[in-house]
Design brief:
mainly alpha, four-stranded mixed sheet, about 450 residues, 22 helices, about 5% strand, 4 strands
Amino acid sequence: MELHWKELIPGDQYVVSVDGPFNEGDRKVLTLLYQPLIGPLCISLYMTLKNQLEENRLLSEPVSHYFLMNILDENLKNIYYARLKLEAIGLLETFVKTEDETRSFLYKLNVPLSASQFFSDGLLNIYLYQKIGRDYYNRLRHSFIDKPINLTEYEKTTKAFHEIFHSANPLAVMKNADIEIENPNTIIQSRGEPAPIIIEQDLFDFDLLFAGINEQIVPLNAFTPQVKHVITTLSFLYGIDPIQMKHLVIEARTEQHTIDIEKLRKAARDWYSIEHYNKLPQLVDRIQSPVYHSAIDQPRTQEERLIRYLETVSPRKLLEDLSDGSEPSTSDIRLIEEVMLKQKLTPGVTNVLIQYCLLRTDMKLQKTYVEKIASHWSRKKIKTVPEAMELAKNEHRQYIEWQQTKKEKKQPVTRKPIRTEKVPSWFDNKETTETPIDIEKFEEEKRKMEERLKKYK
């Protein structure tokens, strides 16, 4: 059973809440800045939830998830994954309440970052830059910028408060107006500030970082919560381990024994540019997202252990492991990146593709062959490792024909070779060539012959 069925069913009720009113600028930010990163379905889900709130209300009426399935014309699985993306990017918070084995959800909408906050975020703006390119990024950024008005050409005539109003006794005014100073059951609409994207600090090993830094060089009190947040974000964004982060922190220290955050960010960018040839990081999951993990709690068989491995390793690490720790070639990395971005394959599915194609093509990644299978899996909307494995087993004969067709175009085949095809271990006994079957028949005939000989003896 799919993971989303454990978390959500169509009959579950939900209500929508919001901190405060939205403005027209939010719509523009969502459409032009957030949508390239999370996709149109996520934005449609967000706007649908928002429009369920009646004007000047902070809480919607309860409805079931059947409503979302009908209004968005999407299945619950896609809606669930879109919801997770909204949560991850900070636009939605989800709360659940269970009563008498019945679940009900509260979806709390958060206002998006302002354009100014977005372009200075240090995480989302870099992903947007990589997604749409420098020219469109600069053009988009310019569309949110207004030139400040030169006030020196004007004369200020604004009246002050005390020039227009006079004050009476405030207690008398309240008493006469019978105003409730405090009522905990009422809420005055206000708009809260949107929260920035937070990377959990548990993802970074600060103990290892502190162990490698002399406290006389960088004291521990220099690692303020803000500094730790920046270190965690930079580590996630650029893939910097604690050992390398130590050098960047030392480089960003000041004479006052503090850490200059801007220097630290610049040092991280410079390090990444040197390591990756001036390329910026891309918005792709390093490993398979948990929402696409199989429902295997404790792997027991060899295939289950392999599934767990492919779900928890990055494509780059898989290539390294298959090469006994050697650094993958630039062409292989570029090919895998192109496949993941163009065909929108998840990292786990990409891992299955890598393993299958390497074993089929004598441990070489042939661009045309990889792209053709990747395109097929993309059209099939394969998202999980087990789905990719099953499709590879079922379509193995077709993939062999693709490969043979390519070879025949290059060189005429004069005779049909008899050989055993190389396939991954998770194929079990689903070989498509006839050689293994011939061997089984041969062994069976051999066994019968031996039994006859025994009788004669």
